[in-house]
Amino acid sequence: MGSAFFVSSAIAAMRSAIRQFDVFNGDADGICALHQLRLEHPVQATLITGRKREIALLERVQAYAGDRVTVLDISLDRNRVALDDLLRKGVIVDYFDHHQAGRLPVHPGLHALIDTTPDVCTGLLVDRFLCGRQRPWAVVAAFGDNLGDQARALGDAAGIDTARLAVLQELGECLNYNAYGDSDEDLIIHPRLLYEYVSRYRDPWKFFSCEPVFARLRAARRHDLASANQNQECIELPAGEIVLLPDSAASRRARGALANQLATTFPDKAHAVLTPDRQDGYTVSVRAPKNRLHAADTLCALFGGSGRPAAAGIDHLPRIRVTAFTEAFAAAFQNRQGGISVAVKAVPRSLPARNTVQPFKPS
Ligand SMILES: [Mn+2]
């Protein structure tokens, strides 16, 4: 037995208790996956989470031999170095995820439940692990991760009626919405605090109707989307639409949700939604036409971005490259039958409201 093992075992023995760390994505899937686990296996844990795209979380864990880390809904590949480190130190790691993981480390301290098939999310993996004992929260997770069909199928099988299912859907969408923003200052509530509120409720319907923090989150989401729909400038192209939102936290939170909403409402059009960033440029969310999910990733890659064919983004598009982006967008999503016709209209200063949503009135 190596001396390193002896020393770390001795340190572990000297500490008063084994510590638990819960490391999870701050979106609906991450929060609901952890909530299911902790309803079944309550334990005091140090919580580590962040915004939707803050996924290098394992490196923040200060754990030692004998400690236990539960990881949910963040890519193993993106946390590999920190994971190897923890395993080497003698930390036990339980890993649940559905993102691309690459090669799985082979180590007796690692218990991994990883499934990258497109119709699962981490909340559904935990549901599988718990044999469905906290199923309503798994349904919330699936709705939040945009797996509506799976969520409804699971809900139906559990005998949840349409009205109650609709509540779980809105709950999932709102919890998910809360994780979006370009910095912590943009967030309505930090996901760690949101999880703490969620964790007080065994019943998701009760959380939905009784928790004031949720009411605030739900109102803010409505307000953000209404204001994004009303205060936008558009470039209309044959292939789709490029939408520019004003410089505000609400815009930054709503950018992805608006892009999803537009993609659902106009399924044969591509969409890009831009918000001003702090470096004289824009952050961009791109959605391919729902009818033909392609090219969002390759378009964004031209400008240093990344993503999937259906949905991708660019962290920083310099202002001077907006014209180049507009042309590339038109070319990427041009109709296969017709030729390319780039008819870029002048960007209007103001647009009529796309739909009539009641403006938000703070109570
Ligand atoms: Mn997920």
Describe this structure as you would to a colleague.
- This protein has 363 residues and is an alpha/beta fold.
- The chain folds into two domains: 16-220, inorganic pyrophosphatase (n-terminal core) (Alpha-Beta Complex); 232-332, Diaminopimelate Epimerase, Chain A, domain 1 (Roll).
- 40% of the residues lie in helices and 16% in strands.
- The protein is globular.
- The structure holds manganese (II) ion.
- Residues 29, 73, 98, 121-122, 145 line the site of manganese (II) ion.
Bound molecules: manganese (II) ion
Q: Helix-strand pattern, N to C?
A: HEHEEHEEHHHHHHHEEHEEHEEH
CATH architecture grouping of the largest domain: Alpha-Beta Complex
How far from one another are the termini? 65 Å
Count every helix, treating DSSP H or I runs of 4 or more residues as helices. 13
Structural class by secondary-structure content? alpha/beta
| Beta strand count | 11
Low-confidence stretches: 337-363
Numbering strands along the chain, what is their spatial order in the largest sheet? 6-7-8-9-11-10
| Structural domains: how many | 2
CATH class type of the largest domain: Alpha Beta
How much of the sequence is in beta strands?
15-25%
Gyration radius over CA: 22 Å
Mean pLDDT: 89
Can you summarize the main beta sheet? 6 strands, mixed
CATH topology-level name of the largest domain: inorganic pyrophosphatase (n-terminal core)
Proportion of helical residues: 40-55%
The 3D shape can be described as globular
